[in-house]
Design a protein that fits this description.
Layout: E1 2-8, H1 16-29, E2 34-40, E3 57-61, H2 69-86, E4 91-94, E5 106-109
Parallel strand pairs: 1-2, 1-4, 2-3, 4-5
Length: about 110
């Protein structure tokens, strides 16, 4: 099994929301191939309303990242890399145009608005 984490702590808007919801739906439905870990803020939690959370999906509420943009960036750059190690994540997916600079994990950076 591959452990995939999604950093959904950014402020999503427009077309990013349905794309991210569809991404979560797909990977959470692949119960025999992937374990999905979603780091999310209270502000973005509504995105999971229409998503069926299966036994292979874990949602982690990131209360610190919800405080302000500067605190969220600090969390992404300094706390998230350690959480990835603790949670034994193989791949980090960052759809919010920012990802940790220093991490030992494979990272997929999604740049949705160029």
């Amino acid at each position: 099994m591959i452990n995939i984490a999604i950093n959904a702590t950014y402020k999503a808007g427009g077309g990013q929301i349905p794309q991210l919801i569809n991404f979560i739906r797909y990977f959470s439905s692949q119960t025999d191939q992937f374990l999905l870990l979603i780091y999310i803020t209270q502000h973005n939690y509504y995105m999971l309303d229409d998503v069926k959370i299966n036994k292979n999906t874990k949602v982690v509420m990131c209360k610190i990242a919800n405080k302000s943009t500067i605190i969220r960036i600090f969390w992404e750059q300094f706390i998230l890399p350690f959480k990835l190690l603790i949670d034994k994540v193989d791949i980090l997916f960052c759809p919010g145009n920012i990802s940790p600079i220093f991490t030992s994990k494979k990272t997929i950076q999604w740049i949705g608005t160029i």
